[in-house]
Fold each of these.
Amino acid sequence: MSFREDLLLLNDVLAGTRFGGHYWVWGGMLLGWAREGGLLAHDVGDADFCFDSSADGDFAAAVPALYAAGFRPWFSYRDSDGELRERVFVRRGSKFEFFRLTAADGDQEYRMFGSDGVDPVEVVGRFPAQRSEVFSFLGRHWNKPTDHEALLARHYGDWRTPVTDWDYLTQDGTVVTTRPWVTAPEGRG
């Protein structure tokens, strides 16, 4: 129950900032809403959001409000070029990830980081640029991509059929390349 409470708190905190209208739900949270009308049971404790780099200033200005509400910085991830791409906050054991999108030839580009089993890797993903729109979920208003079905299909393929062993490193349809990652994560946000 604390994950849901913390999601609602995050929404309330960010709604009181200029950043509130500039981030969207995506990943497992968007998939859960679209397919099941709720949070995915196997994805509780991990909320993914994204925002366009044009909202960098609004995001930075909202961070103190997150701190004041008990969201603690966990890691910040920079790509191999040194550009900040992801910030992760934690509260009561749950993580809240914010992926920064940049423009790339009419697409929106993001980065994720992981391991290929041996070495650290940087995943570069792209999807067609979209506007966001407001939707209701968990008793709050959030933002989502206008054509969420197209984005989910791009990410997951047949997103309407549950897959228990889906792997973002090998199965995500938005991934355009995976390359060695040469920058270590920065602890404490």
Note: The chain has five helices and eleven strands.
Amino acid sequence: MAEQFYDELAEEYHLIFENWDRSIARQGDVLDHLLSAEGIKKTSSLLDCSCGIGTQALALAKKGYKITASDISGKSILRAKREAELRQLNIQFFQADMRALSSVHSESFQAIISMDNALPHLITEKECIKALKEVYSILSEKGIFLFSIRNYDEIHKERPTSTLPAKRDHTITFQLWDWHQNSEIYNLRHFTMIEKDGTWSVSERLSQYKAYRREELNNFLHRAGFRKVKWLLPEESGFYQPIAIAYK
């Protein structure tokens, strides 16, 4: 379901942002600061294992990092390649499922990132731990896994059924969330509305998420082999979602 969702969204994903290029630069600044604080140098090998159309990979490559990128969505990878070429950035791209990273990536990495709430697409404990074990297996000794998720600890208090519409020039994006009864899983309907010559077109994509609490992910990370986990909330990191740093 995640592969189809992002294949369908690839050409319009940038419309989620008020200004995608500014968001790329801003996220690059935050990640550069966090990686530097963890001793990750620009010469270190990095992997973005859920790169999408390239928001973070482009940002870090522009900062001078040696970064490889992969994603489950082939169409997102094609878009990311185009964006890298436009910016004259040297990034190796691969199509890869997080649950099978070692079958695609033969080298090891000092740091692996997965941003923008990618991990909660893995909606079962078995799938999530399998992906985390794959990440662990291709990390160098003392490597780190840095990822972000929505603040589900807070979201669980109200279980919202939609996001506020984001209106930009000639576009509106919003989401509807349909929670499964007595479950932490919700179906997501993502809408993009685009205005052209006074007429609005609407596209809809479907996906599914598991609203993992931080303590549950801590447990999964330890079971996958990570020795320590540190969480940074937005007020600490400057990123728009909570960030976890897991240490091998």
Note: The first strand starts at residue 45 and ends at 48.
Amino acid sequence: MTDAVLNRPPVHALLADGTTVCIRSVVPGDHAQLEGLYEEMSPEHLRLRFFAASRRSAALSADRACAPPHPGYRALLAETKGRVIGLAEYETGDDKDSAEISVAVADGLHHRGVGTLLVEHLVSAARAEGISAFTADALSENHEVLRLFADLGLRTARRFDGPEVRCTIALDASDTYLTAVEERGRAADAASLAPLLRPDVVAVVGAGRKPGSIGRAILHHLRSGGFTGRLFAVNPAARSILGVPSHPSVSALPRTPDLVVVAVPAAAVPVTAEECGKAGARALLVVTAGLDAEQSQALLSACRSYGMRLVGPNCLGVSNTDPELRLDATFAAGHPRPGTAGVAVQSGGIGIALLDGLSRLGIGVSSFASLGDKFDVSGNDMLQWWESDGRTGLALLHLESFGNPRAFSRTARRVTRRMPLLTVDAGRTDAGRRAAASHTAAAATRTMTRQALFTQAGITATRSVGELLETAALLHSQPLPRGARVAIVTNAGGAGVLAADACAEAGLALPAFTPETVEGLLAVLPEGAAIGNPVDATAAVTEQQLGACVDGLTRCAGIDAVLVALVPTAVAEATGDDLVRALTRAPAQRGRPVAVVRLEQALPVELLPADGGTVPAYAEPLAAARALAHAAARSAWLARPAGTVPELPDVDTRRAHTIVEAYLDAPPDGGWLDPRASADLLSCYGIPQVPWAWAETEDDAVLAANRLRGFDGRVVMKAHWPGLMHKTQQHALHLDLRGESQVRAAFRDLETRFAGLTTGVVVQPLAARGTELFAGVVQDEVFGPLVLFGLGGTATEVLADHAARLAPLTDHDVHDLITSPRCAPLLFGAHGNGPVDLEGLEQLLLRLSRMAADLPQLAEADFNPVLAAPGQVTVLDARIRLLPRRPHDPYLRRLR
């Protein structure tokens, strides 16, 4: 067993009822507690666990669990508030690919997910050790443990032998298992957040008697907002604050608080958190800012020890506008309007702007959380709350950091199929930060990584708070368009031109109308109207004519949305026509989105009251076009089935781990693999490589050249030394070598110019013609592996024609990677050339993704160039950098 597995630090996770437990390895000091775990079991439970009601078996089990660590054995326990409540173990036998597993849960704590959570953590540890299956023997009447195994989401086989059952559990990382883990996590997360977002009793610590304190402002908001539960203040110097009963301490409160708002100086936060935990509080909202590292750790430790969920510190607060609760524990200027938008932000200022904007638009808020420094509750938690609260139909996020992006991505993919999920892509200008240390894969910045996350998860990413609200207005009020084809109608030609430019810049199409559509428009519009796209209805258009025109366009098969650009005219004023009213009449009957641009409008976006709904109105054509483009992108994402990660034959993960571990045993700080080790690693994943040979002498190079005759008998020679980045720039290669004399001359040249550096040369046959591409991976510390693809060769970094997606890649992700770069037409046969081997290219990217997902030590990989031709895809040059990294399971249930 490796140190990485044995030394896994303790983690906290949630049971099915939202209780926090600590999952950690067993140590010798746990012996007494483990014996107590069994001694407190009923005779019946002991019999089911050990097949006999023997106290001796219980003692032996405790002895084994607390013995010094030895290869093939692993024991994990679950504890809460210092009490051990569960134990799970596995041990391998002669077959190192399989391990025997056993589970024990304290009496009175069954059906709360203790055993399931422990087994999930054992599964993660076993996979890291290369164990592929668990086996377990159980009595056939032990329905609880049999149900536990059956409900894991893993493939389980049963073999009955008299009164006993032999269970075999395959530890494959299938999507079925991840989905089952997610579902258990979602239910546990929602249960743990109930004291925070649906509390019955709230206490505010730090509410002063004099105006001006944040605590007093939050207490005022809770009271004036009409909180329907019990409300208390904690202040030793007052008996009542703002008419709310005050008590000297949390422990002195007449009711145990579900939620405690902490607004005390930073130095007092840890002590206050400890007092809240001892009093039985289940959630903390810490608005205090300026905690140092020691205070922060003490705060989080108290929350974990006592099982309290935490929002903050350094935050604006939380609110839930449910009329049955009316919780507003914020210090924003006003109360949010009840509605359907869930909002989570890290910045309090952004939170205030979104609350005000959503309230002004009439969309309103279902629940709001200002996450602040995000010690515990995260955007992922809030997504899972909104998914199940029955009130949220639109989710808005402003996150400056991601704690577990891969888990967030899986949650977001699920949630955004049920409701739009919008975010502001904050921090886009951080272009100087590289996701790896060097070379082509380092072109991936955090911006590219975030954008890959948003694209794959179906998240609508905007560039500003204003754009977020503009898009939210359209998604809230209008049906999704079926595509990106827009018809523009205007009563002023200039406004139509502006709208057309805006649509083109946003990536929308302005199709020509069919003759039938033109004929229909001419029949309803005034004489002199120009029936193109845009439609210039002229200033003479009446309210009735404009309504008939828009209604007709929304019924056209070739139109997905209608944008109406209006300016006020004296003609309409004189006739009493209200052109806007023409667009707000029976909008639900149109079936396609309609957006209005009013150039005289003061506010950037408004929602105009309409029959049975609302219609979005924008002050700028570009704002309306951007919102329509975001809606069209969401529609396209929803229309595409969820992708799957294909099964790959001929992958030898065990040998790949052996290669990586062998390399890192020599230089423990990591580095670049030599060509031989790189080729061995690629062969483990079936990645096609051009034939090659390693040569350290001139004679060896000649022999290699004779064996590897390339195109017309020509070969290529490349120098190698650890850390060599750009062979072409450093003139460290020779191309088109013919005959022995040229091979010898090339070897002597490289040996002379790079004396003391080169460790040998690589000889390859000269490749035939094809398109030079680049494929690579960079392992981000936070986001995990990112796969890049695009134009290769010497110009790859200059042109930066790359697309990126987070691993593991689905079949849809691979398709997007291949079609997104500007060079994509070359791959599909542009300029009269035949298409390259697209299936081979897909396989290469999938296998590269699998390698990156399997090997956390893979810090960076560059395949440049990858030669793509009809019927063939081949890696001509591969560079791989390894770093010592512990395995990390991003989908394992645990708190931050």
Note: The CA atoms of residues 346 and 372 lie 5 Å apart.
Amino acid sequence: MPPIPAVRFDGMWAPEFMLSVNIASGDDTRNDGRLETFDALYPRGSYFSEAAQLGPANFYNFHPYIYLYPSETIRLQFDVNFYWRLEQNDGVYGPPGNIIQLPNDNLDKKVNVAFSSGFEWEINEATNISLLATYSDPKGILATSDNHADSVKFVEFTVNWAFF
């Protein structure tokens, strides 16, 4: 889902505020023999962030972010992404649709909080570079998981060069 239209201010650094809110269905009854979880037919890894940890199933999230423009060619980004399970009986899924945490006795709906910041510089019409850093902190069901309780630190450096 695209973010809610941005609120952008003129003036120094021209701040731009945006909000993305997403929801994906889960399974109502765990043992009824029917899988009612949302299934993205052609999943891509980075639904919610470049760190690509969680997939679009059994959850809702709230994602406010801000862009700042200290110059015409530089953009700074700061955001926080909150994730919750839709139902207490829901598992947690990865980007390709694989289950990474089965439902268990933990009734906490919280799943994760991820903080990101980024820098993008448009050097010229054909070249730009970007740097993105994310810190992801498991909550609730993931915080008590044997396999997914550790925080994740992710850094991405990209150079885009278009040639004509």
Note: The longest helix spans residues 140-143.
